[in-house]
Amino acid sequence: MRGIVKRFPGTRALDHAELTVRGGETHCLLGENGAGKSTLMKVLAGSHQPDEGEILIDGERVSLSSPQQGLAAGIAVIYQELDLVPDLTVAQNLLLGRAPTRGPIVRGRRRIELARAAIARVGGDFPVTAKVRDLPIAAQQLTAIAKALTSDARIIVMDEPSATLGEEDLRKVFALVRSLTAEGRSVIYISHRMDEVMEIGDRATVLRDGRTVAVRELAETTAAELVSDMIGESRELVGTVDRPRPEGPPLLEIRSVHREGLIDVQGIEVRAGEVVGLAGLGGAGRTTLLRSLFGDGHAAVSLRLAGAEVRLHSPAAAVRAGLALVPESRKEQGLMLGLSVGRNAGIASLGRPPWLAPRRAGRRASADALSGLGVRHASADQLVGQLSGGNQQKVVLAKWISRGGLRVLLLDEPTRGLDVGAKADLYRQVRKLADEGVAVLLASSELTELTANTDLVWVLYEGRNVACFDPRTTAERDIAHTVITGTSPDSGATP
């Protein structure tokens, strides 16, 4: 892949990125969140078309305008968000579109035989007649890997395959990777775990801000050098919040949030008026933590609110206690795009489904919040789906402000997809709420935003909170080091 450029509205995700993979090697692709890894792989798979640059396979230039063309060229991608159909069986998923037939009839018994062989090759021992949705997540991951192998791909991309696998299953995947490369196939392995990279990889390409910044032979490289490549040498302490840190007893005390094999967080506190950041790589547990606090999960939660023990078994109970969640996906989880701005912003105040409430009730309940947040809209009757991303996010905030009684605000990737101006505007609104006494817990993949807009930054790594930093006194690169490795430099971390 040469000189790959990919632009999206308001951002350049790839800036003349380069990637060269040899036949029969395991090539690790590294970079922080937002470095461009997934976008580069989607270009390789044919899901995105590059604005500039070229792809060559065996020295021949190829044009991949769809995932189907990518598969035809011998490229299979196993995405972290598994590309499986939940209501089909394992066998049906593995041979979807390629099932053995006799005339127009699928040979079901033969399909099961082929599926069993594919699952056995990846070390799976679960029935291929089971529906995918009924399998544990590790078995689903192995199914996705087996599906890629049934296509006879020559280039196989594994995007964070270990995120959902235990040690035993990971050993099986490593053995499979070695057998694939021994056959002359190439594996592109994306991971943030340096121990995996050093064990399984032959070479590594490091992306930073959409650019290729290093290509290293792993036998001649240390994990520390790779981390330095990922972080960069120029990122030092950035401008941070300039107001005094709130004092007094914590308003929110997270004593423990635990779910076996997924999350084990203890001892996070947020005072009234304080903004505490949650940093971490994808899969570190930030979203799981916030959803669990909001009563939307299966974790065991122990928390105190204003010194009193509370049990929040549902989102409704969390709302009654004064908690509010702005979810990662505002379009899927935060808004009803087919309803008006007024009805969306007033939904938490109406006490009934918004489509059953009179329009004027939503307008009346949300008018002050929409005005205070500066939401740009033609009228309260305008469909919320017609607004810009920044204004949609403000409507999600307005929903909670208009209800009143807000004590704790949980924000999950609140600036994702927003332009620079919309981001700055949103953080001003969050700071205003904090100044009014709201406790804010904010998760973001953008470490620079966290260090500039929070009072403290907790780092989550593989489901655990491993260190707490003061962004006023700690260099951003030191926090980034902990985000990537899970270990703290000797510079201001509080275990």
TrEMBL record:
PROSITE patterns: ABC_TRANSPORTER_1 (PS00211), ABC_TRANSPORTER_2 (PS50893). Residues 1-234, 238-487 form the ABC transporter domain. Coiled coil: none annotated. InterPro entries: AAA+_ATPase (IPR003593), ABC_carbohydrate_import_ATPase (IPR050107), ABC_transporter-like_ATP-bd (IPR003439), ABC_transporter-like_CS (IPR017871), P-loop_NTPase (IPR027417). The keyword ATP-binding applies. Keywords: ATP-binding, Nucleotide-binding, Repeat, Transport. The keyword Lyase does not apply. This is Sugar ABC transporter ATP-binding protein. It comes from the Bacteria. Pfam families: ABC_tran (PF00005). GO terms for molecular function: ATP binding; ATP hydrolysis activity.
